[in-house]
Amino acid sequence: MDRVDIFTSILTVASGIFLLYSAYYRPLIDYQRGIDRLLRYYKGEKRDLNRKIEERRRAIEEKSRTLNSTPDILKALNDTCKGSRVVIDKVVPVDGNPFKFELHFITDYRKFIKILSEFEKLNIAIEKLSIDEYETTPDNPKNAITIVINVIGELQMSREARAEILDSVIKESRRDPFQTHELDGRGAVNRAINLTYIFKLSGVSLNGERASATIDGKRYYIGDRFYDKGVVEDIRSGKVTVVKRLKGGDVEEYFIGVRRRLD
Fold first, then answer.
1. In Å, how far are 64, 209, 227, 229 from 222, measured between CA atoms?
2. Positions in the chain short of pLDDT 50
3. What kind of fold does domain 70-172 have according to CATH?
4. Buried-state track 105-128, b at ≥16 Cβ within 10 A, e below 16
5. DSSP 8-state symbol, 192
6. Residue 12 CB contacts under 8 Å (≥ 6 apart), including other chains
7. CA 190, 193, 197, 199 torsion: positive or negative?
8. CATH of 192-257, one of 2.60.40, 2.30.30, 1.10.260, 1.20.1300
9. Which helix (H) or strand (E) holds 193?
């Protein structure tokens, strides 16, 4: 076989390979490229669809936050406080307004701030706020809190507005309402336990030889035993002091004051 025949054979084989590539392999490559383009297209469509679904979900969620009936409002309040492990003691309608309520509950500072944040998400505004001592223990002090809330629909209470309310409460008080212990007249820390919101002091009489106080409908005099808390040691206008003497000479002090009300 001469060189011409060899060259001719090579051309024939190359032509066959080219024809095979054009007839079978090239279409497969084009098909794969088409699949890749289609896949990229559907990935884009999927992203757009997921975005629309998320927007729709958020719209439904925002709509569901608009409380427009008393049962919905009460359920939202209960769920919010329950989620923060706070029990609402009392709910009172205000001025016949179906969207305004006065709430009474007892909690610590952190849970109270959490509840405020959740109320903001529900478009609930706080119109009035009153904070009183409830339990002045060193480790976990609690406060009796009364707030008037108003469900305001789409408007939201700003952080600045909430901060302003808290500041006003603190300024009107003799001390920070969330301070663990109050200070006595000498500026020393008074570790007495506040029972104002456990027992109700309804009246004090300083007339006559013996001062007396009416607590939960019962009259007490200095020296009387007050449940398991000890003995009534002092009765003044708006405050009753109870002292319990423990073994070893230690003294445990309690006091009951007049409950404050919202203006």
1. 57, 11, 14, 14
2. 4, 154-155, 174-175, 262-263
3. Alpha-Beta Plaits (3.30.70)
4. bbbebebbebbbebbbebbbbbee
5. P
6. none
7. negative
8. 2.30.30
9. strand 193-194
